[in-house]
Amino acid sequence: MDGRTVWLSTSVCLVAGSEMNELVGVMTDITARKQAQEAAEDASQAKTEFLAEIKGLNDQLKQENSRMSAELEVTQRLQQMMLPRDEDLRKIANLDISGFMEPAAEVGGDYYDVVSKDGGVFFGIGDVTGHGLESGVIAIMVQTAVRTLLASGQYESRKFFDILNRVIYDNARRMNCDGNLTFSLLHYQDKLVTISGQHEEVLIVRRNGVLERQDTLNLGFPLGLEENISRFIGEARVPLQSGDVMVAYTDGITEAMNCAGVTFGIDRLSEAVRTSHEESAGGIREAVVNSLRRYIGGQHLLDDISLLVIKKMLPSDR
């Protein structure tokens, strides 16, 4: 009477009697079971549609991942291509130079470069915040801007960093990112190194094994944070004699951790450089990298690592 549909399961059998046959049956209400079956069928259909949607999204994700992987590979190759070539470094007179860079991700935010110009040699090293595609793009941008400034003869530290910072600041805003970097420029000429810009300490080991640490905190300001940083730029001058070693690095080395969560630190880095300072620049580089790897064991790198070793050749090495 209320319009409900009731599902019944009926079982009937024929019973023979002495005078007539009778039908005897049982009717069972299976409405609940039928409703459950329909609900299961609806759920199965919904699951089928959901799985089809998931498959479609997964296919899209695979396509997007392939595209991103291709972009990352191109950016990574660009970064590697822009690193100084060993054959070019060997052409620089009176200096033995070796560099190393290993990103923590597919694309790193570290940068270093070596430019020989007008009888001097410029060493640039920087560390962009974070790592990945965005940081890698900024690192490439820095390399291009630095080489452009040096090619135009812009060597004066305050002017150099003022222009470089404005380029990074404007482009970072255009990219809608908050990336910035610490960066130091080391200019070697006439047995003297002029250091400018804020980055990690510069290590110097003299020919007799004495270690010196040059702080750069008061020589600059992170690039890309403020529009004008010219008032923060300073210089430090360090002599570099035959047999002396100078090392620049990024904090991925000193902040690398072992399984106990203890960082490699500046003291271990300094000791690795000091105990190997009589070797070639390549030998010193390998000593540092091997010491770092032994220390962290199987731990993954949490940050990009870069290392630049410069050794003033002895007359007998030339």
Q: Name the structural class.
A: alpha+beta
Distance between the termini: 110 Å
pLDDT averaged over residues = 89
Question: What is the percentage of strand-forming residues?
Answer: 25-35%
Tally of DSSP β-strands: 12
What report would you give on this structure?
The protein has 318 residues and is an alpha+beta fold. Helix content is 39%, strand content 26%. It has helices at residues 31-82, 86-90, 133-151, 157-174, 251-254, 265-275, 281-296, and strands at 8-16, 21-29, 95-102, 110-117, 120-128, 181-189, 192-196, 202-205, 211-214, 235-239, 245-249, 305-312. It has a 5-stranded antiparallel β-sheet. A 5-stranded antiparallel β-sheet has the order 4-5-6-7-10, covered by helices on one side. A two-stranded antiparallel sheet has the order 1-2. A hairpin with a 2-residue loop joins β4 and β5 (120-128). The longest helix has 52 residues, at 31-82. The protein is elongated and about 135 Å long. The model has no long low-confidence stretch (mean pLDDT 89).
